[in-house]
């Protein structure tokens, strides 16, 4: 094992999450203006950070000094059948500076296969990953 952290939540989305790394994350309901992060924000942050770090590692291994960007949108939806709950629709867009969309797609897909968060969610029917042209 390279790293481990445990998150403990006692208050749902109205309070904070304590981490075994001696940090804490304030939490708040997504439909209020309360200070704190909600699960949608944390999901989007986790995948955007992990996938882009993996893209950067692949670029470094190829001796390419290029910027990359991953933008993740996490939407909360109500299930169509009443009483069955909610789901996240998570959409990512990735781009790499100075490469064609096809060249970027190859690296993005390699990163998606290696990224730990991508591995966790890749079988979900409510995620999408699109490679787009670099836009400054």
Helix/strand order: EEEHEEHHE
Secondary structure: number of strands: 6
Low-confidence parts: none
Overall tally of structural domains: 2
- CATH architecture descriptor of the largest domain: 2-Layer Sandwich
For this structure, the CATH topology of the largest domain is: GMP Synthetase, Chain A, domain 3
In the CATH scheme, the class of the largest domain would be Alpha Beta
Mean pLDDT, all residues: 95
Annotation field: number of helices: 3
Radius of gyration: 17 Å
What is the makeup of the main sheet? 3 strands, antiparallel
Q: Tell me, what's the shape?
A: globular
Q: Strands of the biggest beta sheet: in what spatial order? A: 1-2-3
* Strand residue content: 25-35%
- The rounded distance between the terminal residues' Cα atoms is 38 Å
CATH superfamily of the largest domain: K homology (KH) domain
DSSP helix fraction: 25-40%
Q: Class by helix and strand content?
A: alpha+beta
């Amino acid at each position: 094992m390279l790293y481990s952290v445990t998150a403990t939540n006692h208050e749902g989305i109205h309070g904070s999450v304590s981490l075994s790394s001696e940090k804490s994350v304030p939490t708040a309901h997504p439909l209020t203006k309360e200070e704190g992060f909600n699960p949608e924000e944390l999901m989007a942050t986790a995948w955007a950070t992990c996938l882009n770090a993996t893209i950067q590692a692949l670029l470094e291994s190829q001796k390419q000094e290029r910027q990359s960007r991953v933008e993740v949108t996490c939407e909360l939806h109500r299930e169509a059948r009443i009483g069955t709950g909610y789901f996240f629709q998570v959409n990512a867009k990735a781009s790499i500076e100075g490469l064609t969309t096809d060249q970027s797609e190859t690296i993005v897909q390699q990163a998606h296969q290696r990224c730990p968060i991508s591995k966790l969610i890749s079988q979900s029917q409510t995620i999408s990953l699109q490679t787009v042209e670099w836009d400054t």
